Amino acid sequence: MGRKKLARLDGIDDALRVGPEPGAFDLAGMDRAATPCVKDAATAAELRPLLGDELADLQERLYAEGRTDGTRSVLLVVQGLDTAGKGGIVRHVAGMMDPQGLAIRSFGVPTPEEREHDFLWRIRRALPAPGRIGVFDRSHYEDVLVARVKELVAPEVWEARYDEIVAFERDLVAAGTTIVKVALMVSRDEQYKRLAARLDRPDKLWKYNPSDVDTRLQWDEYQAAYQAVLDRTSIPEAPWYVIPADSKDYARLAVTKLLLDALRSLDLGWPTPDYDVDVEKARLAKTR
Ligand code: AMP
Ligand code: MG
């Protein structure tokens, strides 16, 4: 049981990846309640735990590599509008791994200090060290999303950032970081339901921010800004994956699988010790 369903899941990379040519993906036309490569949301919930052992094993190999002379790392960039489920991804997907090997960072409104620097300054400081899996809850993409929609900077400033981001990510990849970029996309109706639920439940009020409604009022502008991100920054070295996110179980499974694929592609072994194992066995035996 599960084997056949897991085999089908192997197609998810191709199903969700955005091609490099502009217009390769039509955000407006996508079904955000779909569950590509999975029968339904219930099946997604059933499958995700089955990936846990391999994910943890590969993470440990990466960590071990980083502790020796490795330079490789992985960076999961999680984007999405309010209520898209970014926090749940961080909690559930990162929760399947050893916290020691993770570097989780979230990016909010820039602080006065951050504002004194280039938009990539705070991002560079938050990058995962060798052997680590970095998780970004929001990222440098906010600087071409909220910054563009809310006109926080002049058009020529955000306009230039797409190319800056591409150059930045190319350098990162060349230096040994595997980048996995996921855009969680909920439908307008589902966003409404989730915001309404926040206002209805005492345990969810803390998640609500009055500005969420302002963001919702600019739904179309945000969709256009996301479309531009997909058109201009889905490079072969670091493609975007657009995740239908009306089902939280599906989104969490999809991101887990994409992260697992990234780790698999690294072909991780175990580091060779810098000591002689037989000599150490003999030394240890004498201490019995
Ligand atoms: P949350 O993720 O709910 O904690 O909210 C973080 C807030 O920070 C969101 O409203 C983002 O739009 C905002 N934010 C994140 N990055 C930037 C940025 N570079 N410039 C302006 N606002 C940002
Ligand atoms: Mg929020």
Automatic annotation (TrEMBL):
Polyphosphate kinase-2-related domain mapped to chain residues: 51-264
Statement: the UniProt record of this protein carries the keyword Transferase: yes
Record-linked Gene3D superfamilies: P-loop containing nucleotide triphosphate hydrolases
InterPro entries, alphabetized: P-loop_NTPase (IPR027417), PPK2-rel_1 (IPR022300), PPK2-related (IPR022488)
TM annotation in the entry: none
Keywords tagged on the record: Kinase, Transferase
Molecular function via GO: kinase activity
PANTHER family named among the record's database cross-references: POLYPHOSPHATE:AMP PHOSPHOTRANSFERASE (PTHR34383:SF3), POLYPHOSPHATE:AMP PHOSPHOTRANSFERASE-RELATED (PTHR34383)
Protein name as it appears in the record: Polyphosphate kinase 2 family protein
